[in-house]
Amino acid sequence: MLALRATNLTKQYGSKIVVNNLNLEIKKGSIFGFLGQNGAGKSTFINMITGLIRPTSGSFEILGATSDSLKDVRTRIGVLPDYSTFYENFTALDHLKYFSKVLGLKLTTDELKEVLRDVQLEDAMNTKTKNYSFGMKKKLGIAQALINKPDILFLDEPTSGVDANSILGIHTLIRKVANEGTTIFLTSHNLDEVEKLCTEIAIMNKGTIQTRGTMDELRKQHQKSITVYVKHGMINNEVQHKVENDLSKTMRVLGVSSTHSEFIVQNERDIPELNKYLVSQNMSVYRLEVEEASLEEIFLNLGVERTA
Amino acid sequence: MFAISLREFKSLFQSIRAIIIIIVLFGVTAGSAKLVSQFKSELSRLGLGDNAYIIGLMLLLFLAAPLFVTSISHSSVNKEMESKTIRFLATKTSRENIIFGKFLGNMSFWVVCLTVALLLIIPFSKSFYFVDLIQSIIFVSYFIGLSLFLSTLVNNSSMTMFSGIVISIALPVIGMWSLLSKNVIVDTISYLTPYFYYTNENTSYTYLVLIHTAAFVILSLIIFKRRDL
Question: By C-alpha distance, which of B153, B173, B172 is closest to B163?
Answer without folding.
Answer: B153
